[in-house]
TrEMBL record:
Organism: Arcanobacterium buesumense
Keyword list, A-Z: ATP-binding, Carbohydrate metabolism, Galactose metabolism, Kinase, Magnesium, Metal-binding, Nucleotide-binding, Transferase
UniProt EC number: 2.7.1.6
Keyword Cell wall biogenesis/degradation: no
Every GHMP kinase C-terminal domain range: 277-343
Domain Galactokinase N-terminal: 21-66
InterPro entries xrefs: Galactokinase, Galactokinase_CS, GalKase_N, GHMP_kinase_C_dom, GHMP_kinase_C_sf, GHMP_kinase_N_dom, GHMP_knse_ATP-bd_CS, Mevalonate/galactokinase
UniProt domain GHMP kinase N-terminal: residue ranges: 115-180
Family: Belongs to the GHMP kinase family. GalK subfamily.
The protein, known as: Galactokinase
Source taxon at top rank: Bacteria
Pfam families cross-referenced by the UniProt entry: GalKase_gal_bdg, GHMP_kinases_C, GHMP_kinases_N
PANTHER family listed in its UniProt record: GALACTOKINASE-RELATED, MEVALONATE KINASE/GALACTOKINASE
Length: 380
């Protein structure tokens, strides 16, 4: 069976696809074209909603939107996955039924858009892979609808995901989807919402970030992610802290065993992010790889958000010579990443695929992640 690599679309290809879908559906041309990327988090998982640190990159894989404002209050959505929706803009609210429209339309609600619009979406961001396809659609929608500042766009998209899609995420995905830059990771501190660009051009050093989509479907709104966030909040309250950013390993004996595990992950993961930033700046890639692997072990053992499919591909990546590997994203399925020499990718892909199939898991899909630019208007 051939291995599946998921390619990113060029601007030209994305524009052609979304324009064709829009014009076929609405019988006129879109007035605004925009795109926003998915993301891969290099390290710093389940830290954003704990006022912590993370280090994501924006993917070259993006969601494209074609949009034309309307003079009435009607909203029409169409996607390349065959889903369509129409209704009054007042129907986009926290009580609407759960569907992809919560992500596509949610930013209109949080940006206080009162007029209708026609919108078409196409995307090469894999769905359900833990690569922030939801943030990509939110951020593409928001920048097409509004000329608000980047900070306001991020805040609106976080609010849409939390209050319209009811996914209790912390904001990393939307931040990097808007503020990502080519050949740089975005070092984010959620205590003060500061951002710093860190050079991250792995190809210059003969390396790749290989993303492995396990095809074990992942959802942020299925309750498990929310349970972990609730456990962190419970630990914070028991310790009398304003956030787990203030926690240290010395606090662990004060907590029940389960909550101590969760806090240990958050504290040590923040430390790993700081070490990863230093390793990237000094091009110490063996050290960075070690940090990836330690992060996975913590997510597997202390935070308990990995799954057999993720553990399998991480182990197979390391057996294939990766400098390090870890699950990425919220967990319970989705994707892993491996820091690996470019010359070893073909062997790694074959071995990872063989190991997944030997365990009875779905055949993984793969993509090469290089740090790319954030959301942008392509035509207006």
């Amino acid at each position: 069976m051939s291995n599946t690599f998921i390619s990113a679309w060029t601007d030209t290809e994305g524009i052609k696809r979304v324009t064709n879908l829009f014009s076929t559906t609405f019988r006129h041309q879109p007035r605004i074209l925009a795109a926003a990327p998915g993301r891969v988090n290099l390290i710093g998982e389940h830290t954003d909603y704990n006022d912590g640190l993370c280090l994501p990159i924006a993917l070259p894989h993006r969601t494209f939107i074609g949009l034309t404002p309307r003079e009435d209050n009607r909203v029409y959505f169409i996607s390349d996955h065959g889903s369509a929706w129409e209704g009054d803009i007042s129907q986009i609210n926290p009580h609407m039924p759960a569907s992809w429209v919560n992500y596509a339309g949610g930013p209109a609600w949080s940006l206080n858009i009162t007029h209708g619009f026609d919108a078409a979406f196409v995307s090469c961001v894999p769905l359900g892979a833990g690569l922030s396809s939801s943030a990509a659609i939110e951020c593409a929608s928001a920048i097409a609808l509004s000329d608000a500042s980047k900070e306001e766009i991020v805040a609106a998209c976080i609010r849409a995901e939390n209050e319209i899609a009811h996914a209790p995420t912390g904001g990393m995905d939307q931040t990097v989807s808007v503020f990502g830059e080519a050949d740089h990771a975005v070092f984010i501190d959620f205590q003060d919402h500061s951002r710093e660009l860190v050079p991250a051009s792995f190809s210059e050093y003969g390396l790749d970030i290989l993303v492995i989509d396990t095809r074990a479907k992942h959802s942020l709104a299925d309750g498990q992610y929310g349970n972990r966030r609730a456990e962190c909040d419970q630990a914070r309250d028991l310790l009398g802290l304003s956030s787990l950013r203030q926690a240290t390993l010395d606090h662990l004996p004060q907590l029940p065993d389960l909550l101590a595990q969760r806090v240990r992950h958050v504290v040590t993961e923040n430390a790993r992010v700081l070490d990863a930033v230093s390793a990237l700046r000094s091009q110490d890639f063996p050290k960075l790889g070690q940090l990836f692997t330690r992060s996975h072990e913590s997510l597997q053992d202390d935070f308990e958000v990995s799954c057999p499919e993720l553990d399998c591909v991480v182990e197979a990546s390391l057996e294939s010579g990766a400098l390090g590997a870890r699950m990425t994203g919220g967990g319970f399925g989705g994707s892993a990443i491996a820091l690996i020499a470019t010359e070893h990718i073909d062997h790694a892909v074959s071995h990872i695929t063989a190991q997944a199939q030997a365990h009875g898991f779905p055949q993984p899909a793969f993509l090469r992640a290089h740090a790319s630019n954030g959301a942008t208007i392509l035509h207006q």
